[in-house]
Structures are given as C-alpha cells and as structure tokens.
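Lest this sound abstract, we think one record worth quoting, the chain in one-letter code, the fold tokenised, each line plainly labelled:

>
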Amino acid sequence: MSDTPKLPKLLAISSPGGHWIQLTRLSAELEARYQVVYAMPAALFTERSRSERKVYSVMDVSADDKWRLIPCALQVLYILLKERPKAILSTGAAPGAVAIWLGSFLGIRTIWVDSIANVKQISRAGKLAKKRADVFLTQWEHLSNGQDILFKGAVL
C-alpha cells in the first residue's frame, strides 16, 4: 500500500493548434496537484505524448462539421465514465465544449478558458460552453463582465 495520497483526476481536453498549446501550458502547472488525463484529436498523438501522459484520442470537430459531434460526444462520454474526473479543463474548441456540457450533466466541475486568439468577442464554442461551465475565463480583460465571464490573466 502506498503512503502517497491519491491525487484527484482532471480531464484536460482541447482541439489542436493554439488551443492545445494553451491547455498544455495550463495543465503543466496543475500536474503537481492533479492526476491529469488528456484528451486530444488523434492528429496530435505522438509517441512522446503517449509515454509521458495518459492520453485519449477524440474526434476533432468544428461548428462546420456538426454531424461529427455525435461520435465526439460518445468518445468524451466514454472517457468521463471511465476516468471519473473531479474536474474538466478546456481551452476550446468544439471537443472541449462537448466535454463541458457532458461533464456538467454528470456533476463534474467544469472550467473553460477561452482562447487568447479571441480578442474581440468570446468564441463560438465558448458561447456554448458558457451556458454550462462552472468557471468561464477570458484572457482579455475587456471581454470580462466581472460576473460569469472572468479575467484572471493570459496563458500566453
């Protein structure tokens, strides 16, 4: 038996590109306090990511490919039921919004960090996630309303 306390699980999920870069920067700081489980599109899979972290593959979807939301949602639901995370963290886009919605219905705490690329307004996926996220953060102070859209600084 180990004397080390078991860390709570955190599901970190995002789309590729800038979303993934921001998510890995955020989650790297959290790995000391949480057992971070990652979900990302298969295009991001590398041998390195598999060997260093627990990683699941999810279908990358966008608002333009709505029919792909169903298989993505089934993949995310499988991960949530198998891993039972205490919280979900996403920087976007659609796979993260799907996770936020499903997680909220399962009673999992949810955190959305809207991408720094969204300078003028909250992203489309962010607008969907905002309806169900427990914590919604923007990286631009002028987009914060101080109530349900909060600014706590930028990731990049």
The chain has a mean pLDDT of 90.
